[in-house]
Specification:
Helix content: 25-40%
Number of helices: 7
Strand content: 25-35%
CATH superfamily of the largest domain: Response regulator
Shape: elongated
Structural class: alpha/beta
Number of domains: 2
Low-confidence stretches: none
Oligomer: single chain
Length: about 250
């Protein structure tokens, strides 16, 4: 079988290559790539049987691989490799897709390769990928996918205080004073969440969760005081609309 290792760490690439050479004789050809885009290119050119895919990579997380084959059949087996990503691992378990935790255990690697070979021989790869996509959808119910450099955080909607525009990026403010910088503009989250009762855009730079408002201040204009004591302005053209929402929701 032909395999490709996609990992941004050269040391991790070489270690996985050595483990395969020493313990998995059925893998007789090993290719390597240092990022997802390079890996996608090699996959399309060489058609490997197995893809060992790191999750935590800069620019594109390994979890995004499905986006690059959206309308194409996937004829290779994916084995995700991760230091630990709670929601990703949960999705893998739901779909029965294989994953390896770093540092990679030799016996688990052998088991994963044997399982991959069985799936390839029985031509059931696409069923497994379909199940993985469904698993991610299932996890995303009442959660928001936040793409960070190391992967994807699935944040519960109730844990989000507000979104704040930061140029072409968005700062997401969560409970427990946690903040994440997301590589998407605010309008992405507005289109995704503004139709929901609990989310409202009081200002061009903010999308708030109404559940986490502590106070409405009319000093020096309308301002909303959030649970983290952040003051968020309400635009002049939104004042009347916001007061109507308060009357309907609270």
């Amino acid at each position: 079988m032909k395999a490709i290792i996609i990992d941004d760490e050269r040391k991790a690439q070489n270690l996985m290559e050595a483990l395969l050479q020493q313990n998995c004789i059925e893998v007789n050809s090993i290719l390597k790539a240092s990022n997802l885009l390079e890996g996608i290119k090699i996959i399309k050119e060489t058609q490997p049987d197995i893809v060992f895919l790191d999750i935590d990579m800069p620019q594109h997380s390994g979890l995004e691989i499905l986006d690059f084959f959206d309308n194409q059949p996937i004829d290779f087996q994916i084995i995700f490799v991760t230091a630990y990503n709670q929601y990703a691992v949960e999705a893998f378990k739901l779909s029965a897709i294989d994953y390896l935790l770093k540092p990679v255990d030799v016996q688990e690697l052998i088991t994963a390769v044997n399982k991959a070979q069985h799936i390839i021989e029985n031509k059931s790869i696409n069923n497994q990928i379909r199940d993985l996509k469904q698993a991610f959808k299932q996890l995303a119910i009442n959660k928001v996918a936040l793409e960070i450099p190391k992967g994807i955080i699935f944040a519960a909607e109730d844990d989000i205080l507000y979104f704040e525009a930061d140029g072409m990026y968005t700062k997401v403010h969560l409970l427990n004073n946690r903040t994440e910088l997301i590589c998407k503009p605010l309008k992405h989250f507005v289109s995704q969440l503004e139709s929901k009762v609990s989310f409202y855009k009081p200002h061009r730079s903010y999308l708030i969760n109404l559940k986490h408002i502590n106070e409405l201040s009319k000093k020096d204009g309308f301002h909303l005081i959030m649970e983290n004591n952040k003051s968020i302005p309400v635009s002049k053209d939104k004042k009347e609309e916001f007061m109507q929402i308060i009357a309907e929701v609270f």
